[in-house]
């Protein structure tokens, strides 16, 4: 392992041992009605299959990037554990999926994000098994897909790597909570105004905390990406992150 990558992993490990009070992460265990919990599991499973294939292909073609894959998972674990209480049965926090999405693509991040959520449910009592499908769909499917599309679009129009990563991470994080708001609205429509009124209420509450968190996460992701570009240049080239149009920061 390169010393630079080891330093980043040590820093993340240090953050993990800092105690914090447990609270609901995303949508907590048992909060969704059973039919909605099963529905979100169903729509997430195809993306998990695509994710397994994506990671397998990348590792076979570029085995030297395994440590960066681990770094992406640790980064997502730490950031998504930094939470702020929000809507009853849920919370706001960074998602941490932007880094891995830029490096490995959205489907690989579906696997990483789901594993992160599973570990948090089992080890930290954040989230839950019944709501894992819903939480994974918002953070590990929608978030990475939006992040990837924004990143590729920004690069295509000539934005620098740093600006593309920042914008993609911010919008990807916000999209996660837009999806969470929709999930809660579908499960708990308002008596007056139905799903739309409920969605507006949930999204409005989330926006107070999530927009500043998304901006902070975007800045941090750019810092880590710049670090990787400085010390892990060959790995980034192997992953095709540093294309000609994205070579300047």
UniProtKB/TrEMBL annotation:
Pathway, according to UniProt?
Cofactor biosynthesis; adenosylcobalamin biosynthesis
- What does the UniProt keyword field contain? Cell membrane, Cobalamin biosynthesis, Cobalt, Cobalt transport, Ion transport, Membrane, Transmembrane, Transmembrane helix, Transport
Q: Write out the annotated subcellular location.
A: Cell membrane
**Pfam families linked:** CbiM (PF01891)
Provide the primary localization. Answer: membrane
Q: How does it sit in the membrane?
A: Multi-pass membrane protein
The keyword Transmembrane helix is annotated on this UniProt entry: yes
Enumerate the transmembrane spans. 34-55, 67-84, 104-125, 132-151, 157-178, 211-228
* Family membership: Belongs to the CbiM family.
Functional note = Part of the energy-coupling factor (ECF) transporter complex CbiMNOQ involved in cobalt import.
Q: Cross-referenced NCBIfam families, in alphabetical order?
A: cbiM, PRK08319.1
Q: How does the record describe its quaternary structure?
A: Forms an energy-coupling factor (ECF) transporter complex composed of an ATP-binding protein (A component, CbiO), a transmembrane protein (T component, CbiQ) and 2 possible substrate-capture proteins (S components, CbiM and CbiN) of unknown stoichimetry.
Name of the protein in its database record = Cobalt transport protein CbiM
Which organism is this entry from? Niallia oryzisoli
Q: What is the lineage of its organism?
A: Bacteria, Bacillati, Bacillota, Bacilli, Bacillales
Its gene name is cbiM
